[in-house]
Amino acid sequence: MKERLVQLEVMRYDPEGDTEPHFQRYEVMCKDEWVVLDALNAIKESLDPTLAYRWSCHMAVCGSCGMMINGEPKLSCHAFLRDYPGVIRVEPLANFPIERDLVTVADDFIDKLKRVKPYLIPKEKKTLAEGEYKQTPAQLMKYRQFSMCINCMLCYAACPEYALQPKFLGPAAITLAHRYNQDSRDGGRDERQEVIATNEGVWECSFVGACSEVCPKAVDPAGALQQVKVASTLDWFKEHLLPGGSPK
Q1: Quick check: 88 and 6 in contact, CB under 8 A?
Q2: Euclidean distance between CA atoms 209 and 159, whole angstroms
């Protein structure tokens, strides 16, 4: 099995001793099929146990190992070393405060998720005896793509609007709100629209599309946000221009 010496330039930051982040270079022998996360694990195991970063599943499912790799938001468990022939620069996700080394503070993202209520709010209450909330395959396909989000925050690291306007709800939060708004079983659209159909919500988006380019699950948050804009515009026309109009 082939191996090669890999050089990684890793951002380090210890809030207890550093005034600002700095880079530290490591050299480690890696196998051809390894990903950047494997290289970081090798560094931590054999060279520097103080290196801090997040990871869990190593299967591009949990979303916790997002980092900037050569300036691009990536899941480090899905960034193959064979695709990086030179020195690999690894940094924490952009647009978030650094907690330590490659670990960022995700509080702002979590708060925004809570605001959009990313969970099913049933149209009608049913007891267990009354059975499931059923839907057709066609109704499922209407939102299925948007349900694939793993909350990795890569889209926030790529989003220029979030970088400029921290109050912007951001791609993932609005996409997940849209996912539930499109669900035939859900009755919480009006509550979510109060949050997402605002200047700090979907209307802050300038449709650069970087969020969809970096999404590891092909969720297409940029497309979801444009669908929200169209739906919100139709709401406005129905409410203001139709006799007895209502956005519902």
Answers
A1: yes
A2: 8
Q: Roughly how many angstroms between the first and final C-alpha of the chain, as a whole number?
A: 61
Q: Are residues 49 and 155 in the same domain?
A: no
Looking up residue 128, the CATH number of its domain turns out to be 1.10.1060.10
HSE-up of 136 (CA within 13 Å, CB side)? 3
**Sign of torsion over alpha carbons 207, 209, 212, 214:** negative
**Two tokens at 141?**
């396909």
Handedness of CA 226, 229, 233, 234 (dihedral sign): positive
Q: Look up residue 82 and give its amino acid.
A: R
Burial of 211 per CB tally in 10 Å (0-12, 13-18, 19+): buried
- 137-192 pLDDT tens trace: 999 999 999 999 999 999 999 999 999 999 999 999 999 999 999 999 999 999 99
Say how far apart CA 65 and CA 210 lie, in whole Å. Answer: 19
User: pLDDT of 22-36, one tens digit each?
Assistant: 999 999 999 989 999
How far apart CA 139 and CA 200 sit, in angstroms, is 29
- pLDDT tier, 239 (very low <50, low <70, confident <90, very high otherwise): confident
Owning domain of residue 58: 3-104
The angle formed by the CA atoms of residues 220, 230 and 176, to the nearest 5 degrees, is: 40
**3-state SS assignment for residue 4:** strand
**What is the pTM (predicted TM-score) of this model?**
0.93
Nearest partner of 175 among 108, 208, 138, 223, judged by Cα: 223
Q: How many domains does the chain have?
A: 2
